[in-house]
């Protein structure tokens, strides 16, 4: 940064203010670095993200619609495979009048988990696509792939084609699960970024609710239309998201990455509701550009760069955060909830699944509010503790009283709902918020892709192994309600992980998160005040290699005469 030295009240020089396009009357706030000024120089912080937030909010909320595809597709399968017409079409005769058709545990595992296999590969490929054709066009392509998978499932009359459809639909969902949080994080103003990205999880829960309603409305109908209608509804979700994205701007950070400054300025102008020539737009653009240029001075971000130096901590944080989100066990309820409630002798297992899904939707709203009010780290700790307690209570009561008893069923449904509240208000949305924030621009696509792929890898593993863990019979563990001991243990691990590895990024720009990782540990990250401004000189920024002390040393050399530059 460039400063005129005037004792304690150090401020940007008038020529420098004109150079970077800041109006002379702009409000300033001077904050010293921790421990006092460095070399008599204090740091001046500016809020570049001015303009109308409503535009960015609406754009971010529409992009969150991708969660509908995610949630609906994952939510329908538990009801579809329990529908009698579907079992008659795809299952085998059992000779039991009560359950004339059934599928094996291996078929059930394959049908449920194949979607997650597709999402895993889709999430990884999204990194390449995002940096090639952009975030916006990537979402549109994802919708086309998803629609192709839906078409195969709708037309299927045998398990092989149904599996192929599940895979391609999953591939599209995997692409979307990387593109949407990335698009939202790069388009949203920092003060609202957490809440906007959290709306992606809200959309997922709404998709799950729509799936439960569709299953509830169709499961008693006869003929193949009972399940084909449930599947075909997804064409509408793909059309809405893909069609709507055609009218939204690409993110300015993608255009910066492509060195298309004019397009980046126009994109930021649309997002902030200000003219592209406005000083605030020019200043924010300069900040993003300077940071990216500094990152790129160390070379292009490769897949290996995600695991080198300081980036390794962020990458593993994203990977394990998404993995632990799945290890909370929530998808056990949404994938196998209907079947599990039937085994627990609920009179209406479909209704029980609908109740848990309603709780999931309603409980996401406190998370959207809390993520900016209380921060990411604190909510993840509270959520992990709350989920662990609920899981252990369900496991202990269910084991002590036996499945099927009135007491066990009352405790099961009550504490499963409380458990879902803790998940939906904390780990559900915040895991997506965090992975959208912690990566620098040059590896952001790859970092988010690896994190999302981890989510889907664990999703696949849990979806595949759950029937073997829960179901009774030869070759199965037959844990039934005891499986909640496992989920309770993994939720305890979630707490430990969040305590040691999750940084508090509330209120920071994506560029300022780099400085946070340079200066603090996860346990000391709360209350961090950034002191770096990237846009004061094109050769300096924060991101990949030099630490802050080295940059200060560079600044102290006085390369610009009487003007000092400090980063």
List the helices and strands and how they pair.
Blueprint: E1 2-3, H1 14-19, E2 29-31, E3 43-45, H2 53-63, H3 66-80, H4 84-90, E4 92-93, E5 101-102, H5 105-133, H6 135-155, H7 159-187, H8 193-218, H9 225-232, H10 234-245, H11 252-257, H12 261-272, H13 279-296, H14 309-327, H15 330-343, H16 349-373, H17 376-401, H18 406-437, H19 441-470, H20 483-501, H21 512-519, H22 548-556, E6 564-565
Antiparallel strand pairs: 1-6, 2-3, 4-5
Helix pairs in contact: 2-7, 2-8, 3-7, 3-8, 3-10, 3-15, 5-6, 5-7, 5-19, 6-7, 6-9, 6-10, 7-8, 7-18, 7-19, 8-9, 8-16, 8-18, 14-18, 14-19, 14-20, 15-16, 15-19, 16-18, 17-18, 17-20
Description:
- This protein has 567 residues and is mostly helical.
- The chain has one domain (53-248, 298-519): Growth Hormone, Chain: A, CATH 1.20.1250.20.
- The chain has helices at 14-19, 53-63, 66-80, 84-90, 105-133, 135-155, 159-187, 193-218, 225-232, 234-245, 252-257, 261-272, 279-296, 309-327, 330-343, 349-373, 376-401, 406-437, 441-470, 483-501, 512-519, 548-556, and strands spanning 2-3, 29-31, 43-45, 92-93, 101-102, 564-565.
- Strands 1-6 form a two-stranded antiparallel sheet.
- The chain is globular and about 75 Å long.
- Residues 1-48 and 537-567 have low confidence and may be disordered.
- The chain crosses the membrane at residues 56-82, 110-130, 137-156, 162-183, 195-214, 226-248, 318-337, 349-368, 380-400, 412-435, 447-464, 484-502.
- Residues 59-506 form the Major facilitator superfamily (MFS) profile domain.
- It is a multi-pass membrane protein.
- Its main location: membrane.
- This is Major facilitator superfamily (MFS) profile domain-containing protein.
């Amino acid at each position: 940064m460039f400063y005129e030295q005037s004792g304690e009240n150090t401020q940007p020089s008038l020529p420098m203010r004109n150079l970077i396009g800041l109006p002379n009357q702009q409000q300033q706030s001077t904050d010293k670095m921790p421990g006092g000024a460095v070399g008599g120089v204090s740091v001046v912080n500016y809020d570049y993200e001015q303009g109308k937030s409503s535009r960015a909010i609406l754009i971010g909320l529409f992009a969150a619609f991708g969660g509908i595809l995610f949630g609906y597709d994952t939510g329908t399968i538990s009801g579809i495979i329990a529908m009698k017409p579907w079992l008659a079409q795809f299952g085998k005769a059992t000779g039991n009048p009560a359950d004339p058709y059934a599928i094996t545990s291996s078929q059930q595992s394959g049908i449920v988990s194949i979607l997650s296999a597709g999402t895993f590969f889709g999430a990884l490929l999204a990194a390449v696509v995002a940096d090639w054709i952009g975030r916006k066009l990537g979402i549109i392509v994802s919708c086309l792939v998803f629609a192709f998978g839906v078409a195969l499932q709708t037309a299927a009359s045998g398990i092989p084609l149904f599996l192929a459809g599940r895979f391609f639909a999953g591939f599209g969902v995997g692409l979307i699960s990387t593109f949407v949080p990335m698009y939202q994080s790069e388009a949203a103003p920092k003060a609202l970024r957490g809440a906007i990205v959290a709306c992606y999880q809200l959309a997922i829960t709404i998709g799950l609710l729509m799936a439960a309603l569709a299953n509830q409305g169709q499961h008693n109908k006869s003929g193949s239309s009972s399940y084909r209608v449930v599947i075909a509804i997804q064409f509408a979700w793909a059309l809405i998201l893909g069609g709507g994205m055609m009218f939204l701007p690409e993110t300015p950070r993608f255009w910066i990455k492509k060195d298309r400054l004019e397009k980046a300025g126009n994109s930021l102008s649309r997002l902030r509701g200000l003219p592209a020539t406005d000083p605030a737009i020019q200043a924010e653009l300069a900040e993003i550009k300077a940071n990216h240029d500094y990152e790129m001075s160390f070379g292009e971000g490769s897949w290996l760069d995600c695991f080198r130096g300081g980036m390794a901590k962020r990458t593993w944080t994203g990977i394990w955060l998404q993995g632990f989100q799945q290890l909370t066990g929530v998808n056990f309820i949404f994938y196998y909830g209907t079947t599990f409630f039937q085994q627990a002798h609920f009179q209406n297992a479909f209704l029980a699944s609908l109740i848990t899904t309603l709780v999931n939707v309603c409980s996401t709203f406190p998370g959207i509010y809390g993520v900016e009010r209380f921060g990411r780290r604190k909510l993840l700790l509270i959520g992990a503790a709350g989920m662990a307690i609920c899981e252990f209570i369900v496991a202990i009561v269910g084991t002590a009283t036996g499945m099927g008893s009135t007491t066990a069923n009352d405790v099961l449904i009550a504490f499963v709902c409380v458990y879902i509240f803790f998940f939906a208000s904390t780990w559900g949305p915040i895991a997506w918020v965090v992975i959208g924030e912690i990566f620098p621009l040059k590896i952001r696509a790859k970092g988010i892709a690896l994190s999302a792929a981890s989510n889907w890898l664990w999703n696949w593993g849990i979806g595949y192994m759950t029937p073997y863990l829960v179901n009774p019979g030869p070759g199965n563990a037959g844990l039934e309600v005891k499986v909640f001991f496992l989920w309770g243990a993994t939720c305890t691990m979630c707490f430990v992980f969040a305590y040691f590895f999750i940084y508090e990024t509330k209120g920071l720009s994506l560029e300022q998160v780099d400085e946070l990782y340079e200066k603090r540990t996860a346990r000391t990250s709360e209350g961090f005040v950034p002191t770096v401004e990237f846009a004061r000189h094109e050769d300096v920024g924060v991101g990949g290699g030099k630490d802050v002390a080295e940059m200060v040393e560079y600044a102290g050399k006085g390369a610009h005469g009487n003007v000092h530059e400090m980063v």
